[in-house]
Specification:
Structural class: alpha/beta
Strand content: 15-25%
Number of strands: 10
CATH superfamily of the largest domain: Bordetella uptake gene, domain 1
Oligomer: single chain
CATH topology of the largest domain: D-Maltodextrin-Binding Protein, domain 2
Shape: globular
């Protein structure tokens, strides 16, 4: 028995020594940063800005690998299945990490079991807007209008189970109104039909809607965050409109395979946080209405857990069936 324990201790010491040596040499070749959405979207813009700065900090190239599909699930699953050596990481979305467990019938991973949380990268509030033909000028007027015309108003989304869909359902539940969900395949067609008066309202990431709001083509009603957005300071929060429970923010976080050695994860965390505090990165992403975070892995894991539970409750109350 003593010999067995001694051998086990030697193995553990050897593993610790190997891990420490790996961390000392990390990184010694390029890192792949998976963005689980097509090029050009918010997740891609965030990934490229943060990845470029991390390349400078780590003195190794961080290569963006766009793997779109299934609302971010395909790219996120690629990280789960990657070698846990720190050379494959991702910046992925709230949808892939916190919403999918409730809305995807056969999710190939468990977020907190199969992924190592590195840091919460950024948040962006969902903005509620209406078509110019809708007479409501604020949240209370919109709720009153919906209650006066049950089942007559439609809200668009970027697809079933998406953040805009669940934000709309949260609005419906909190305000106790009867509005009809109209799913689209992405933000562009949803906004086009809002402009064309085919739908009356939508929740979407603030940067997607802001140009049309500033042009007067749609009307901003509220942002689903605790505080007003710096890029839209005149738009009140849902709490100011009388519905503090309607809080909906999209967010993006950095993750790695679960078994990534902690010393390597610490290096990635330090580089990511330093990148997020860089003035150039803050300026570039701040213009998009993003709030950069850079918290601890423990704080990020707790946030993912709370968001998963929150949206699971909304899914259940709304009677949404996993697909």
């Amino acid at each position: 028995m003593l010999k067995l324990l001694f051998r086990l201790a030697l193995v553990l010491v050897g593993v610790a020594a190997t891990t420490a040596a790996s961390a000392q040499n990390f990184p010694n070749h390029p890192i792949k940063l998976i963005v689980p959405f097509p090029a050009g979207g918010p997740n891609d813009i965030i990934g490229r800005a943060v990845g470029q700065k991390m390349s400078e900090i780590l003195k190794q190239q961080v290569i963006i690998d766009n793997r779109g599909g299934a609302g971010g699930v395909i790219g996120t699953d690629a990280v789960v299945k990657a070698a846990p050596d720190g050379y494959t990481i991702a910046i992925t979305s709230a949808g892939a990490l916190a919403l999918s467990p409730s809305v995807v019938a056969k999710l190939p991973y468990s977020t907190l079991r199969d992924l190592k949380m590195i840091t919460l990268v950024a948040k962006v509030p969902e903005m509620l807007v209406v078509a110019t033909s809708v007479p409501a000028k604020n949240l209370s007027e919109l709720v009153a209008l919906a209650k006066a015309q049950p089942g007559k108003l439609n809200f668009a989304s970027t697809g079933p189970g998406s953040m805009p869909h669940l934000a709309g359902e949260l609005f419906r539940i909190a305000a106790k109104i009867d509005v009809v969900h109209v799913p689209y395949r992405g933000a562009a067609p949803a906004v086009n039909d809002l402009l064309g008066q085919q739908v009356q309202m939508v929740f979407l990431d603030l940067p997607v809607l802001l140009p049309q709001v500033k042009a007067g083509k749609i009307r901003a009603i509220a942002v689903g965050a605790k505080t007003r957005a710096a890029s839209a300071p005149d738009v009140p929060t849902t709490a100011e409109g009388g519905y503090p429970q309607i809080e909906a923010e999209n967010w993006y976080g950095m993750v790695a395979p679960r078994a990534t050695p902690q010393p390597i994860a610490d290096i990635l965390h330090k580089a990511a946080v330093e990148a997020l505090h860089d003035p150039g990165v803050k300026e570039k992403l701040g213009k998009l209405g993003l709030t950069l975070i850079g918290d601890s892995p423990q704080e990020f894991a707790a946030y993912v857990k709370s968001e998963t539970e929150k949206w699971a409750s909304v899914v259940k109350q709304a009677g949404i069936q996993p697909q």
